[in-house]
Specification:
There is one protein chain. α1 runs parallel beside α3, α7 packs antiparallel against α8 and α9 packs across α10. Helices cover 33% and strands 28% of the residues. It is globular. The two termini are 30 Å apart. The mean pLDDT is 88. The strands form three sheets. Strands 5, 6, 12, 13, 14, 15, 16, 17 and 20 form a nine-stranded mixed β-sheet that branches. Strands 1, 2, 8, 9, 10, 11, 18 and 19 form an eight-stranded mixed β-sheet that branches. It has one domain: FAD/NAD(P)-binding domain, CATH 3.50.50.60. It has ten helices and 20 strands. The protein has 406 residues and is of the alpha+beta class. The structure holds flavin-adenine dinucleotide.
């Protein structure tokens, strides 16, 4: 980067998927940007698939393409899915979506989180006005004139605008005194890689059970017989599943999915994550903005967390670019308020929809069961309802800020 001083226009704490994309979009508009991340420089995964994967929507795909990142991804490690099947284990309700319904080639993509962060990091290396510091955990953040001063070990950085992209337990958010109380979702997420008798056929599947949803997300390679699973369940059920040996776990999995893909075997270690939901009461403060999980953490059942985070990054970059074009200071309060207005309602809607889904599927009353199964059946039969559902669930390119539309 040309400007080697420790002051930049914008300082981003957190080089995850949201922070990484934001940094690229800002550098491309001529801002000087610095990313500080607690972890080592991201590296591409190789061999077996990495444990954390994400489904990316069409909107995310276009954003990454716009930032020159999509073409850097290894196509062999990206799995497109062209259909989705959602069903209720105990009832008769089922919805199927296909790319053809949406007039598209595919509904979304599945890729490893590390793969994407590594591609973002590599792209950052080609931007002159962008510096990325790995192994730099931020420990102190204080106001400094109109901007912020940030300390990481014995290094100090200043910026006109500070962005918190530092995940669910954001220190940036805490430093700004923005509340985002954790709400226990009542679920834990068990993730693992499985192999099935029958190929997934590029279909993302999700079965709802009383104890929580189980997603089977199609993975690349292995003749299409591998899926990444996210099994959300009550803590007791999650403990039971973790205590099973691999054979018994495979049997539980096959039974839970009704052998949708024949018998299933686990081929990786199993890991469990607590699912806490959060929503920051504000996305901005003086000379500060929050994006991604620092602003909102939603239940992973619809695989939307990072898709929302990438849209935050795109909208914030668009608003800051607009400020620059109008000759306003980068941290102008009106601009930050506009960013918050454009993103908060959308994110809240998605969070509440996920809560509603979870509640609907865990209620045992026959009337609620009848209603949800009838609802699923209706959504399945009525094309307009199916399209509306798909639009919200998948994030079409129309959600994009103007500067990144295809
Ligand atoms: C089981 C599971 C499955 C999921 N599946 C999907 C899916 O299919 N699709 C989807 O869209 N979303 C999914 N999500 C959600 C998604 O993983 C998150 O929304 C996403 O990772 C958030 O990205 P982020 O960049 O905002 O934050 P993070 O990924 O949390 O990144 C934060 C970064 O900040 C850094 N950091 C933290 N503190 C500091 C500090 N003090 N100093 C410096 N750096 C710091 C960290 O090192 C990290 O790199 C899933 C979540 C779970 C739990």
């Amino acid at each position: 980067m040309e400007n080697q001083s420790l002051h930049t226009d914008i300082l981003i704490v957190g080089g995850g998927m949201a922070g990484g994309l934001l940094a690229l979009l800002l550098a491309d508009q001529g801002f000087s940007v610095r990313v500080l991340d607690a972890g080592p420089a991201p590296a591409r995964p190789s061999g077996e698939s990495a444990p954390r994967v994400s489904t990316l929507s069409e909107a995310s795909h276009w954003l990454l393409r716009h930032a020159g990142v999509w073409d850097r991804l290894d196509p062999e490690r990206v799995q497109a899915y062209a259909s989705m099947q959602v069903w209720d284990r105990d009832g008769t309700g089922e919805v199927r979506f296909s790319a053809a319904d949406a007039g598209a080639d595919c509904l979304g993509w599945l890729l490893e989180n590390d793969h994407l962060t590594a591609a973002l990091f590599e792209a950052a290396g080609e931007r002159d006005t962008l510096a990325w510091h790995g192994d730099t955990p931020v420990d102190d953040l204080t106001r400094d004139g109109d901007g912020w001063r940030v300390t990481a070990g014995d290094q100090t950085f200043t910026a006109d605008l500070l962005v918190g992209a530092d995940g669910a337990r954001s220190r940036v958010r805490d430093a700004a005194g923005i509340p985002a109380p954790a709400r226990d979702s009542g679920h834990r997420a068990l993730v693992a890689t499985i192999e099935t008798d029958q190929p997934h056929g590029g279909c993302a599947r999700q079965v709802f059970m009383d104890s929580g949803p189980l997603a089977l997300l199609p993975l690349f390679g292995h003749d299409g017989r591998r899926c990444s699973i996210v099994w959300s369940a009550w803590p007791q059920r999650s403990d039971e599943l973790m205590a099973l040996d691999d054979d018994a776990f495979g049997a539980a999995l096959s039974q839970a999915t009704g052998e949708a893909l024949g018998a299933a075997r686990v081929v990786s270690r199993r890991a469990v994550f607590p699912i806490e939901e959060r929503h920051a009461s504000r996305y901005q403060a003086r000379a500060l903005a929050l994006v991604g999980d620092a602003a909102h953490v939603i239940h992973p059942l619809a695989g939307q967390g990072i898709n929302l985070g990438l849209l935050d990054a795109a909208v914030l970059a668009e608003e800051l670019g607009r400020a620059r074009a109008a000759g306003l200071p980068v941290a102008h309060a009106t601009i930050l308020a506009r960013y918050e207005r454009r993103r908060r309602a959308d994110n809240l809607l998605m969070q509440n929809a996920m809560r509603g889904f979870k509640l609907l599927f865990e209620r045992p009353e026959p009337a609620v069961r009848w209603l949800r199964n009838t609802g699923l059946g209706l959504v399945n039969r009525l094309a307009p309802a199916r399209h509306a559902f798909m639009h919200r669930a998948l994030g079409r390119a129309g959600d994009l800020p103007r500067n990144a539309r295809p």
